[in-house]
Amino acid sequence: MIEFFTENKDMIFIVILMIFVGVEVIGKVPAVLHTPLMSGANAIHGVVVVGAILLMLNTEADNYLALGLGTVAVFLGTLNVVGGFVVTDRMLEMFKKRK
Amino acid sequence: MQIDIQHIIYLLASVTFILGLKMLSNAKTAKNGNLLAAGGMVAAIITAIVFHEGAVSAVIYGLIFGAIVLGTVVGWLTAKRVQMTKMPELVSLFNGMGGACAALIGLVEFHHNVGDSMSMTVILAGMVIGSVSFSGSMIAWAKLNGKIKNAIRLPKYNILNTLILISLFAYGAWIVWTGTGSELHLYVLFVAALGYGILFVLPIGGADMPVVISLLNSFTGLAAAFGGFLYGNQVMLTGGILVGSAGTLLTLVMCKAMNRPLFNVIFGAFGAGTESVGESGPQGSVREVGPSDLAVQLNYSKKVIIVPGYGLAVAQAQHVIKELETILEERGVEVTYAIHPVAGRMPGHMNVLLAESNVEYDKLKEMEDINPEFSQTDVVLVVGANDVVNPAAKNDPSSPIYGMPILDVENAKACIVNKRSMNAGYAGIENELFFRDKTQMLFGDAKKVLTELVTELKALD
After folding, report:
1. Domain extents in chain B
2. Nearest chain B residue (CA) to A28
3. Has residue B153 got a pLDDT over 80?
4. CATH code that applies to domain B281-459
5. CA dist B299 to B8, B243, B326, B330, B453, Å?
């Protein structure tokens, strides 16, 4: 346990601090903005696509199964990112129209 | 040096995520916040590709770019073309894609890390959570767009689901413990996780889908964070945990708006006693009203409150309701909208929808502000809403929605309810409001009958 902590202490610091940041950032949000906020957060976890890209970059060129799955993963992750941000933008567009 | 630049960009991207999310919680800054986070995301993705060390074949670069371009085009077009009413289900769909991405990463990385119990734990956790998020989101998506109509419950589904969940944990732990490199176990775990996601969401009623999507959203965040742990990638870790924690809080905030603890949403699904409630529900006769009579009634009112619900969104009646508002205002009638926190399929759904037809922001009143006003109101027009105006929430302790705050439409002098039929609402329970003396029913598709109503009003001039 202690060993695990020592090896990953930077990561663990990030995790703990980000939990608090996440809670702080959302606090006191008006109900009107729940949907866009959820949608925006949805786009942000699309950062998982970075993992899919790293996976591809680390795969040997002749490992077809891994490359196939990896390509699908990059595609799906990109869908999450692009679709997520664009949908959020469209939702917020509606709010802006009424000056 | 390259590594330093890479880390600086990852750091900046993380900051844009935090600031973006912060700005999203304020109406004025929301749009820029979203763009800021999007910019950070693009920077993070480019950095991951450009600063990679070691030789990579051109084929792999080609595959990556191909997938990104295809994903961008498909995602962009889907998001641009979808109707406003279908946005909640689209969010669920995209959430599922993120979950699937995390699950695939786990599937591929597994055999690289056999024997390293730390990495295996991280990989399996990310894969299981990603899979649950994926299949759960797909079910939520199907429920929201009506492909799956009713809550489907296997016998003793709560116990069954809990057992499956425990088995998933145990099986995953066993794989790590034995350090087995067998792909078979990996795929069995993968399929079991997919199955759990389906069984987890199936029993939950459509009215609770927003909460479920928000919860699955934070699951995907968590899955992304496990990916960050695996690759030692800070931007995945910060982005993932940020969404995981913010998403969990948002889920709880939504539950609070409905006055239903998260536990009840997951385990005590709405309408669990539907049969009995359906039989013994309020009976009696309802009074019907036609568009022409209603037009007269509205024309001579002083104050009208419109209560929009999901039916309005389904019928795409947001423009005609704005037309109704305009014509009534011209006749000197005061018109406002009462927005229940969970009206529609997502909190804020109605606001977005009505904003589309240029209804003024000031006219949308939240529940706490508008409830005292009903007693001075001549006519309340309920359009496609049901559970959020059901008095059973206040006076029937046996009702599944008992305790949920509702709009006090019964205090108004008259209440007109537009519905397509007498079918029960999403919670699957009868509404005694419809049988009250002050209530009149206006049956029909919201867009159709409201258009008729507007025509009748114009003829009255």
Report:
1. 84-270, 281-459
2. B25
3. no
4. 3.40.50.1220
5. 64, 49, 12, 10, 11
